[in-house]
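QA checklist item 7 of 12: single-chain prediction sanity check.
[x] sequence parsed
[x] length recorded as 262
[x] structure emitted
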Amino acid sequence: MQVMTHQHMYLLLAASLGLALAVPALAQERTPPAPHCMDAVGVQEVEQASPRSIALRAASGQAYRIDFSQDCPGVRTATTLKLEAPAGWACGRPSERVVVDGRSCAVSAVTPVQNRDFASVARDSDRLRTATLPAVTIRERKEIRRGFGGSPSYCFATRNVRAWSSDPQGMLVETNPRRNGGHRYYRVELGSHCRQLDRAPQLSFRSGMQNGLICGNPGDRVLTAGFENGDLRSDSLAPLPQYTRGACTIQAVYPASSQASN
């Protein structure tokens, strides 16, 4: 594959193989032309939920949105997908374009986005994708989907939960990163403040799709159990604790960069 032509670096995504074939990284450290620019070397994921834009995750883990000047559908089902950008930096300049199976789509803007925004696009993209067509993605994620049944960009498996904590933003869940696309922590946003979490001795997750995945889908909930008033749990002669149960709706799930979340 020709790596550079007229100072344009091409990122080729081979959809039919489920692979992302990225150009090799340069030997010296790469400095972006502007803070908002995306390094096209080693793009990890490509998602599309609207014909006017796509979402990408760079090798650094930072997510971006690329907007098009006109509708550019079919990115998820393309056989070949090519990003053309000067020196491998996508910044939203007139010379930049995405080529989808030979169709050229002019780039109008490139914007860094939060993990929450990327997860939303990935979730909508999967819902719109024809079930019989393979996703335009990397091999690692495709292999994860065989056993995981969903994308670690916006889901975690209940069986992989190691720990959890609550805070004003909702919940922070720790999972097994080896089984969740390398993500150790997930931010879980709830429909409202779940006061039951503050002192719940027991907690579990219920998947609305009944597949063991928590993705922010309708019916996804966190179930809590708390001690009833008057329960003498410290009394060795007291009967087994009595619980009152509650449930809180899960609205969104997305990877968190650290215990501090993002």
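[x] summary fact logged: Confidence is low (pLDDT under 50) at residues 1-27, 130-149, 231-243.
[ ] second reviewer sign-off
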